[in-house]
Amino acid sequence: MAKGKLTFNENLCKGCGLCVAACPKKILELDKTRLNSKGYHPATCVNPDECIGCAFCATQCPDVVITVERF
Amino acid sequence: MAVVFEPTKGLTDKPFHYCPGCCHGIIHRLVAETLVDNDALETAVGVASVGCTYNSYEYIACDMVQAAHGRAPAVATGIKRNLKDSFVFTYQGDGDLASIGTAEIVHAAARSENITVIFVNNAVYGMTSGQMAPTTLVGQVTTTSPWGRDPSYQGYPINVSEFLSNLAGAAYVERVCVTDYKNIQNAKRAIQKAFNVQKNKLGFSLVEVLSTCPTNWGKEPLAAMDWLKENMEKQYPLGCYKGADITFDADGKYVSGAIPATSNNCVNVGEVKK
Fold first, then answer.
1. Half-sphere exposure of A14 (CA within 13 A, CB side)
2. ipTM of the shown complex
3. How far is A59 from chain B (nearest CA, A)?
4. What topology is assigned to B24-256 in CATH?
């Protein structure tokens, strides 16, 4: 199974949660302990080892927050 | 390690001003990616309309013009007739295109202007805080239909794709949505096909994209996506309404399919006065 790596441009995130719902491995969450510069809870990957690099999250993101690499 | 998804060069660095969960960001990106894929970023001209998309010229990294409310197809007509080799597109919402701009869009399609229209339909006036639009569903609550849209008083929604597809000048009309990965890829394919239609000078093309407006629908972004699937897709069925049989080869060159008659292949009716 391919492995993926996500990079979040956190300050663009508006915490809409569409990426959280789009992830087939259910490893994305809104980080309720932090705020970004816009004042939203940014999306983060809670279990990076599980990521398969499918880019569903990045495709669904309306604010082009996520960059996806696969290896 | 290969990068499978990165921010496209077709978008500027400016962060979107749209509300959380608004589909405009996705649709902007699809348009920008299509321009980059076709190496058209330097030559394309977009026409921004009035509505939430009023400053889409700040986000898409090609040349863009701002048109008066609803007049984007008329402005695009002028640009395309002068810059025949440029890809010319308009980016309009439903309050802009289906209400104040009805005359412009109908006649641009009837003239078979060789332009592409990206029509974002979210069933409500977004920027002005959620008034009823011509595309608002029957029974939908908005700030100007607080008891739900009543057809006996406020009429019925307009299905733009269906009625424009009846015009002989329209070459390609398709309705898509961006609720999930599969539909987003389908929307990108539709935008690319509209691009090819214009490149091959086949006539007017329109892609209607169903979008959410979480703020004015009063829903969470995810609940808004579900509401779109349950309600909007019933009133506005997805699919290709005109030009489904038009095909292109791998280089985007026209292969086959029914297209509007042009000056080269139409038959004159009556006597031509000299």
1. 19
2. 0.96
3. 7
4. Rossmann fold (3.40.50)
